[in-house]
Task: structure prediction
Amino acid sequence: MLSFYLDEDSLGHPLVQGLVSRGVDVTTAASQERLHLSDDEQLLYAAEQGRVLFTSNVNDFPRLHYEWLGRGLHHAGIVVRTDQQAPIGPLIRGLIRLATELDADSMRDRLEFTGSWTREDADPR
Result:
């Protein structure tokens, strides 16, 4: 199962509780005392830890993903929350689905959007 690193733009405590209670390995920028660092530094940390970075920062991380690939840099994956108003339950289920259906190799250098995983009829692969 994939492990996640939630940056400071993610939902925080309710999301962490929901994932951890279902057996998902999660850590956060806050718990690692990495608040107020640049997006690039957050992605680098997640990559060094082998964790998929989860963020609500839809403006910067897709761009950063392509910049990294263009520079020959690698990361463990990025998941961007696309619907900021969606209830947390479908988000938790979608992240668990992603974490169980994809492995670390298939997630490497991959950019995913939560909408692909939270819809019941979606087949993101």
Q: What stands out?
A: The first strand starts at residue 3 and ends at 6. Residues 3-118 form a domain with the Rossmann fold fold (CATH 3.40.50). Strands lie at 3-6, 25-28, 52-55, 78-80, 111-113.
